[in-house]
Design goal:
about 290 residues; 9 helices; 11-stranded mixed β-sheet
């Protein structure tokens, strides 16, 4: 029986985005504040995902052994370090979140049956690497606050209550929506980036956060005049809004996850990923009792 296990680790380190072949002005233009000397730091959180068969003791691997491997090969070397100097790989390709995840995979894969490395630079930015050459995934999270009402206009109030419950009340209700947007692409062998992070964030802000924040979705967003703004439909619309802007910054939209509340979330894959059989499919998570 195959199982995937996840071992968490952490390290604190600093880094700087700066290419010696560029002038200070060129570095500042390309990397913004991340180019400033002497650099800046993060509390990194690392998740190491491994797959294997259960042994006679009910384990895939002895986690004490896994802990020692991660410490020896990664965290003891990176903790309280300046990443640009600590490993030769980061002098060739800058230590971006996605490239750090890739290099950590390379360091650990001879010792552990890896299936994925997930590295959080901070809670709103993380990368996933699965051993596919220079391909990686990068996720940013953000939020917006909005109100909505779930009701079909052709139905009576009583009929809408039968379908949507309290969500059909005529004056609507609101949520603090949490949004995660994941892109995929090839890591640039020099900059270490899938795409310009500033442009990625700006695309999400310009096409989603600013238009959606503090709105009544049914009335303020034209798309939802005729489409019921369920979490599923909102996620699909966000995906459709972002696919082309993400393509324009040189990456591919991979997934949109919308968390409506701690109890309800929905995720949809981009139509170009092949993850879905149709554009209208989505994965919905609802906690029991909701």
């Amino acid at each position: 029986m195959k199982c995937i296990i996840n071992r968490r680790a952490q390290f604190s380190a600093s880094h700087r985005y700066c290419l010696p072949e560029l002038s200070p002005a060129e570095n500042a233009k390309q990397f913004g504040l991340c180019a400033q000397a002497p650099g800046h730091g993060h509390n990194y959180v690392l998740h190491v995902l491994m797959e294997g068969d259960l042994d006679e003791y009910g384990m895939v691997l002895n986690l004490s052994d896994v802990k020692q491997v991660i410490k020896r090969e990664v965290t003891s070397q990176l903790d309280f370090s300046y990443l640009n100097d600590v490993w030769a790989e980061f002098q060739e390709t800058l230590p971006t979140t996605e490239n750090i995840a890739r290099v950590i995979w390379q360091r650990l894969v001879p010792h552990l049956p890896l299936v994925q490395i997930q590295l959080f630079e901070h809670p709103e930015l993380w990368a996933d690497y699965k051993g596919n050459g220079m391909e990686a995934h990068l996720t940013i999270s953000t939020h917006f606050s909005a109100a909505h009402r779930l009701a079909l206009p052709q139905l009576t109030l009583e009929q809408n209550f039968e379908i949507y419950g309290k969500c059909a009340r005529v004056n609507g209700h609101g949520h603090n929506y949490h949004l995660e947007v994941t892109i995929k692409g090839e890591i640039d062998p020099r900059t270490g980036m899938i795409a310009d992070l500033v442009k990625f964030q700006k695309a999400v802000d310009d096409y989603v956060v600013e238009p959606f924040d503090h709105t009544f979705l049914n009335k303020d967003i034209p798309y939802f005049e005729k489409v019921v703004p369920t979490a599923e439909n909102i996620a699909i619309h966000i995906r459709d809004l972002l696919e082309e802007p993400i393509r324009e910054i040189g990456a591919t939209l991979y997934k949109v996850k919308l968390i409506e509340s701690p109890n309800n979330s929905c995720e949809v894959y981009a139509t170009s990923t092949g993850e879905l059989e149709s554009a209208q499919q989505a994965t919905v998570t609802r906690l029991v009792g909701v």
